Each structure stands twice: as structure tokens, then as C-alpha cells.
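Example 3.2
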Amino acid sequence: MSDQAGRRATSATSEKAGSVPFYTPRFWHGMRWGPWCRLLARNRMRIHPLRWPMVLVISFCAIVNSILAWIQRAVYGRRIAAARVADPPIWVVGHWRSGTTFLHELLCLDPRFTYPTTYECSAPDHFLVSSWGLPWLMGLLLPRRRPMDDVEMGMGRPQEDELALCVMGAPSFMTRAAFPNEPSPYDETLDLDRTDPAVRDRWREALGRFVRCVELKRPGKRIVLKSPPHTGRIAHLADLFPGSQFIHIVRDPRALFRSTVRLWRTLDPIQGLQIPRHDTLDEFVFASCERMYEGFLRQRTRIDPAALVELTYEDLVRDPIGEVRRIYERLGWTGFEEVRPRIEAFLAERREFRPTRYDFPPELEAELQRRWSTYFDCYDHAASKRVLAQQSCDCRRPRAWH
């Protein structure tokens, strides 16, 4: 399908990008001065005139962040360097808009687990010394719900650690949102096997340091992390944190494509220092998934099969209690019945939420089948695994168990 046809298909069904107040914190408000200046220099200061007020505010915040980061290094530097992650982390992986956020929040209801909060991911260089008051202040400026899907937001809620890597100035795919009209940086980190070793070492150092800080903040609890770009990094995560376990969620590729296009159409105008054109957005979404899942399929052969469980978004929405129970059993976790009341209460609060429905033109369907054949295979594989597990359970337990 041509780029022009893709743009026509995208514009035919895309929804108007959400908006947020001008004072809403952006990703870049948590950066230190050095990473912030490098981000601007790498993109040759190609900033839209309307974005300069935001740039000036972020620049002031970058100076404050640098001071707070220096204080954290002075107070906690040795402890951070010496910290050890007591229990191997749990990683929720899957493409953007595949249900990773919903699954992450369900798992984090277990009081034995912990997670990086939105504030900690927004201020990764100093949250150990600044979490006494700044989360409250920033929470006042944060929208109550995410503009792309109306999911509730909050400084204390679980957040994806890729945001922390981005804010720290580490090699992160998310930095593309700052300059959406420029070539996307760090595309190769979606498949860490294909990344330059020096870039990979920077990524490992930043992620390791951030996870150790979370461990220091709440010791004695197993950390649950989620980030879509980690899908093509699972073998490297298992190497960095031996004993890690992975939960991979997939979604019908048609809904996934449409929802991902809508994600970037919503996110880029909010986060961007440019006015996004999005003239090649369909191609960008196609290529990102291809790269990520080439890495995932290659790397999954290098991790313990018993450390990976897979499910579909559709099954999770249909039967969240049953799917979370299956995850507990598959990964050998205990205590599900103690957690179940928390999950039921959480689900009761979200009972009004309904996923967005998308139209799908035939020409886009054909292109999707061609470009995302690997993802279709992953989706079919996860669905068939669920059917086999269901049949196995039916042989041993009465149906009421589900």
C-alpha cells in the first residue's frame, strides 16, 4: 500500500488527538540539564516557534533537576551503587496498546509486589530525595485521565520504566516524541541484539541504576515493570537480572494498529517540540512492530520457557480473574486467593471502561497481513495456548473454578 493510500486510510478513521492544559508536565520536565541540552543539540534546535515557551520552562526545570540529582548522588550514591535487587523482576511486555497497562495494574495489586510510580519514572535521577513533596505538586498539574484512552492517571500509579530511561538521557525509543518530524532515534533499541554494544552498555547501566533505586525506595518487595520496547530485549533483561519472569500480551493486530496510530497522533502534539506532520506515521508503526518482534522471536529461544507466559488482550478483558489466576499458576506464584478481592474491587471501579472500536479498510487489511505476518503468528500462538490451557484445566477441575 502506498504512503498516500496509508495516509488516506489513517485519516479516515483516526480520532481527533486529545489535548491537555499548557501547564501539564511533559516527559522532558524531569530531565537534567545535560541530557536536555543533548536532546536539543541532536535535533539541531528545530523547535516550532509556538513551543519555545515550553522549552524555556523545561530548561528551568532541568537546572532544578540537576541540583536535586547532585543531592541524591551525595546522599545515596554509594548505597545505589552497592544495592542488589533481592528478587528477580517481573516484566510485562507487548506492543503498545496491547493491554500492557491494564495487565501491569492488575499484577501490582498484589501487596508483595512493587513497581515504579509515575513520579519515579518522571524524576528518575532524584526521586529518592524529592518524593516528600514534588509528587503532590506535580499531581495537581497532571490530567486525571490519559488523553489517548481515558485511563486514569496519577503520580502514585504504576508507570512504564521506558519513561525513566528517556528522562535519564539513556538510549530510549521514546525520545522520538520530542521531535516527531525528525528521523526517529534509537529505533535499533527495539531489538537490542541489533544495537551497537556501546549504546547497549549505556542502556544497561541506566536501567540497572533505576531499578536499584526503586529497590532502595521499597526494599523487600518484588518489582513488576512494564514497557513495550522491552519486548525486543527479553534476553538482555534476563541476562541483566537473572531469574526474571516475563508476561507477554498480544492483541488482535487490526485493533492494535489503529490504536497505536491513535496513540502517536495524540501523544506527539502533547509532547512534541514541533507541530507533528505525521505524513509517514503508518510506515513508522509498521516498521516498529516488525523490528520489535523480530527481536522477540529470536530472543525468546534464549530464555527459560518456564519463565514466559503469554495471553491475549481479548482474553484478559473477557476474564481478567481467570487470566491473572493462570499467570500465577504458570509462573509458580502463590497467594492468588488473597489478592483476588483487590482485583475484584479494581475491576468494579473500571466497569464503565470500553475499548475504542475501529473501522478497517480492505487495503489496509492486506498491507497489515503482509507486513505484520509475524505478529499475526504471535497472536494466534497465544490464543491457541489459552485454549490448550483451558482444555487442560477442564480435565482436572470443575468448570466453576474458572
